[in-house]
Amino acid sequence: MLVCLFFQFPWKSARKVLAICGVFGFWFLFQTWQQTQASQNLVDSVERVRILPDTIKVNGDSLSFRGKAEGLTFQVYYKLQSEEEKEHFQALTDLHEIELEGKLSEPEGQRNFGGFDYQAYLKTQGIYQTLTIKSIQSLKKVSSWDIGENLSALRRRAVVWIKTHFPDPMRNYMTGLLLGHLDTDFEEMNELYSSLGIIHLFAFVGYAGGLFHGCL
């Protein structure tokens, strides 16, 4: 195939194509290496986790988000203790670090034939452990030089601003289509979007959002 490339196109064009392929190939190998390292360097416990703000989801008294600690990413779960705590996390936009007491475990795999394999899904996102928070000791605002973390905070600010300034279902359209953010409000209106024939658009942006976090 490479030989045909040289015969069919001028050397300069072929060289550009090879350079682009080389960059993507290197990126793919680097991502694979990172995932391999993460899967081999699991930890027994964590005491502090930095929240990725745009992954925050509040469903009733259940809070979930993705957090970073010791160079690893975790899927985190917590049962909210009060309405004030719930409102605080719903409005949270900046980078915060939680000091906590919690339990680490492996994600649940496929329960039955043809069922959803949550463990395999998280693996594609570079996540190999889940963290269930028993209690929060402190929550403090932090700063970071990490580009991915700052982009996460910026995306979260946009999501919260849209949800604050626009009514349903417009805000779900905007956060879903513009930012690729599909939360519990979207799930509640899933049938409406299906009847309108636009559910595939949300599926695409949701996939793009997953790729974004997989690259952080």
From TrEMBL:
InterPro entries named among the record's database cross-references: Competence_DNA_uptake (IPR052159), DUF4131 (IPR025405)
**Domain named DUF4131: residues:** 2-137
Q: What is this protein called?
A: DUF4131 domain-containing protein
